[in-house]
Design goal:
Distance between the termini of chain A: 36 Å
Largest sheet of chain B: 6 strands, mixed
Strand content of chain B: over 45%
Helix content of chain A: under 10%
Order of helices and strands of chain A: EEEEEEEEEEE
Number of helices of chain B: 0
Helix content of chain B: under 10%
Structural class of chain B: mainly beta
Strand content of chain A: over 45%
Structural class of chain A: mainly beta
Radius of gyration of chain A: 13 Å
Distance between the termini of chain B: 41 Å
Number of strands of chain A: 11
Shape of chain B: globular
Oligomer: heterodimer
Chain lengths: ~110, ~120
């Protein structure tokens, strides 16, 4: 089954404690990205990757890091989480840059105390 | 820059009736794509329908159709014969040809409630 898998799905952590949200896709997609969803703001892109070792900032990259060492994986790293990073996070992938839908993971709800 | 506007924070519809969810957009890209996603209370994002800016006909997918009016820059979603399972948050999104990173720009969403 074609899917994007994120872990963990739910996490409560404290300010400053580094965490990583993993993302893996099994569709051999070149393009992967991370979004955060906040009430009243829709989804906003954090980082994206066009291929292995190629990443770039999206609209709201502050406080986040990413890496793309393998085509299928695109982890999101919060080096020192803060309460304003409490949000619902989505990983997404797509095959073509210009066309085609984004396939989303199930979401990871993060709370930073 | 791209912008999506969904002016209806919440909508209510009776079961079996049709409902239109509004979406207007703004972009300087000559070529772009428009998307609608559904987000039920469980949280996942479900792709519903896609319309390319150069497509001659409005997109349809089962009970979903996209009323695309290019001159007015609108891409409204029409759901026919509403079902209780259609109750969810609906997001309109777009991607321009020149947009880096394959980024989708999302609207704020419309919460649809289908009443029995």
């Amino acid at each position: 089954e074609a899917q994007v898998t994120q872990n963990p799905r739910y996490l409560i952590t404290v300010t400053g404690k580094k965490l990583t949200v993993t993302c893996s896709q099994n569709m051999n997609h070149e393009y992967m990205s991370w979004y955060r969803q906040d009430p009243g703001l829709g989804l906003r892109q954090i980082y994206y990757s066009m291929n292995v070792e190629v990443t770039d900032k999206g609209d709201v990259p502050e406080g986040y890091k990413v890496s793309r060492k393998e085509k299928r994986n695109f982890p999101l790293i919060l080096e020192s989480p803060s309460p304003n990073q409490t949000s619902l996070y989505f990983c997404a992938s797509n095959k073509e840059v210009d066309t085609g839908e984004l396939f989303f993971g199930e979401g990871s709800r993060l709370t930073v105390l | 820059a791209q912008k999506i506007t969904q002016t209806q924070p919440g909508m209510f519809v009776q079961e079996k009736e049709a409902v239109t969810l509004d979406c207007t957009y703004d972009t300087s890209d000559p070529s772009y794509g428009l998307f609608w996603y559904k987000q039920p209370s469980s949280g996942e994002m479900i792709f519903l329908i896609y319309q390319g800016s150069y497509d001659q006909q409005n997109a349809t997918e089962g009970r979903y159709s996209l009323n695309f009016q290019k001159a007015r820059k609108s891409a409204n979603l029409v759901i026919s014969a509403s079902q209780l399972g259609d109750s969810a948050m609906y997001f309109c999104a777009m991607r321009g040809l020149r947009t880096s990173g394959s980024r989708l720009t999302f609207g704020e969403g419309t919460q649809l409630t289908v009443n029995p």
